[in-house]
Design brief:
- The protein has four helices and no strands.
- The chain has helices at residues 2-11, 17-26, 64-78, 84-120.
């Protein structure tokens, strides 16, 4: 029984590209409808809106930028901002790291300059 199913699939004729082209050329084609005059584009306006919790508003795809701003504003409302004490500690840490890193880069630059002058320019 399995052999019969396989042979049936194998016996099924597959239309080649050439045969399909010849068949389509011989068929009667319907006349092409004239192209309609281009319709004027609708004015798209940017919509800024506030979404209330529990309600979903449909947003069209061309409202990407306003949707971005709305979502960004909602995210900023969810942020827990650090207090003054933590902010000052983090600011001092950033300044110290910048000074240490700048000093390290400066020392490496100075050292490579000395090596370059003594070895290459000698």
């Amino acid at each position: 029984m399995i052999k019969d199913a396989k042979s049936a699939k194998a016996a099924k004729k597959v239309e080649t590209i050439r045969e399909r082209a010849e068949r389509l050329a011989n068929e009667k084609t319907h006349p092409v409808a004239p192209i309609e005059a281009a319709k004027p584009a609708k004015k798209r306006r940017l919509i800024f809106f506030k979404v209330k919790p529990g309600k979903v508003k449909k947003v069209r795809r061309f409202h990407i930028i306003p949707r971005f701003f709305g979502e960004s504003w909602r995210e900023l409302k969810d942020v827990t901002w650090p207090d003054r004490k933590i902010t000052s500690k983090l600011t001092v840490a950033v300044i110290l790291f910048s000074v240490v890193f700048g000093t390290a880069v400066g020392l490496v630059d100075w050292g490579l300059g000395v090596v370059f002058k003594r070895v290459v320019l000698k």
